[in-house]
Amino acid sequence: MTAARGKAQPRPDALAIGPDATGTIVVSLNTTFRARDYPVIAWDLSAVPDDVEATVLWYSDIDSSRVFRHALVAEGGHLAPVGLARDPGWLGRIGGLALVLHGSFTEPIVVRSAAAKPMSAVQVVGERLREWLQFEPWSGASINGRVERAESESLSLPAVAAAFAAVAALLYAGLWWWKTRGFGPAILGGLGAVFVAAWFVADANWQWNLARQASLTRGLYGGKTWEERHRAAEDGALFAFMDRVRDKLPPPPARVFIAADLPYFRARGAYHLYPYDVYYDPSTGTIPAPGVIHKDDYVVVYQRRGVQYDASERRLRWDGNAPVDADLVVTGAGAALFHIR
User: How far, in Å, CA of 128 to CA of 106, rounded?
Assistant: First the structure.
């Protein structure tokens, strides 16, 4: 897999590709398979903007001089698999595939793989089993249950278990009626057993995922101090920088303004700096105008665009406002602490 257009950065299990000057990424690979045997193409990508224009390109030995194309749908940071069985160009032996992404995005897109799928009954069942049994790390929405991945179009295990339970309950009720010619309280025990069995299957799947998550969490945080645990977490770089900021701040209650492009960094950064008098905009990430920020206030910038500092003049400006006198106290990767003079 190569990047025909864009800036590629190889990773151990993926390829991170940034757009070129025109906002375009082209990923290509050589293939050799019969179109009729593999009607579905699925690209495993992440960090795909929803407004990007995505297209899959290919050529075949039927007409190797012509390049065929089919639009893809981007949703939830991923690309949906596309069925090409009815596409007039999906014929013969496919000799090459390419993915074209075009838009106004600036961040790299992570490309893990491309798959041509036969979509036979055996393969579909195998994929569903792998999806249900694969490990799903915790997220903010999965503490009480498993959450289906955004790129997955298949039915969830609880939905399948519920469908099987409903069908089994109908069959059980039909057999009961056929044998007894009526319904009575005794039928409730059998119906209850059917739904308890379905619940047990869904819950056992979550318990198995929970056990693996507990093992992973223990390996990541077990035996560490509270500071080491913070540094090992997903926002360890943010915590490390805010720890350096705290060392340079005077005793509370100093006023601290936090600015970051991502809402998570603003809120989490403020959390790490309490009990200082911390201000951040939870909705837009704007920095108050120079007239609002006073002498001896502090401004923390973390991965926030639109901020410039002139070290020779010791002047700070943001979002096109008039510059203010400030000292650069702490610097980091895309981060800084300023003291307003």
Answer: 34
- Helix, strand or coil for residue 100? strand
Phi, psi of 60 (to 5 degrees): -130, 170
**Do 252 and 275 contact (CB within 8 A), yes or no?**
yes
DSSP-derived letter for residue 4 is: E
Among all chains, which residue has been given the structure tokens 């639109």? 306
In sequence order, the 6+-apart residues with CB closer than 8 A to the CB of 77 are 46, 47, 48, 49, 50, 150, 151
Strand residues in 78-228 grouped as ranges (E): 78-79, 82-83, 93-102, 109-117
Phi, psi of 226 (to 5 degrees): -60, -35
Per-residue pLDDT of the chain (341 residues; tens, 9 = 90+): 899 999 998 888 889 999 998 999 999 999 999 999 999 999 999 888 888 999 999 999 988 889 999 999 988 788 989 999 999 999 999 999 999 999 988 888 999 999 998 877 777 787 778 778 888 777 665 666 666 554 444 578 888 899 999 999 999 999 988 888 788 888 888 899 999 999 999 899 888 988 998 999 999 999 999 899 999 988 899 999 999 999 999 998 889 999 999 888 999 999 999 999 999 988 887 888 888 999 999 999 999 888 999 999 999 999 888 999 999 999 998 899 999 98
- The model carries a pTM of 0.56
Peptide bond into 253 cis (omega under 30): yes
- Judge if the upstream peptide bond of residue 275 is cis by omega within 30 degrees of 0: yes
Distance, in Å, from the CA atom of 253 to the CA atom of 102, rounded to the nearest integer, reads 48
Q: Which CATH architecture has domain 2-118?
A: Sandwich (2.60)
User: Would you state the torsion angle of the CA atoms of residues 286, 287, 290, 293, taken in this order, to the nearest 10 degrees?
Assistant: 140
| Coarse DSSP helix, strand, coil percentages of the chain, rounded to the nearest 5 percent | 30, 30, 40
| Domain boundaries along the sequence of the chain | 2-118, 120-222, 229-340
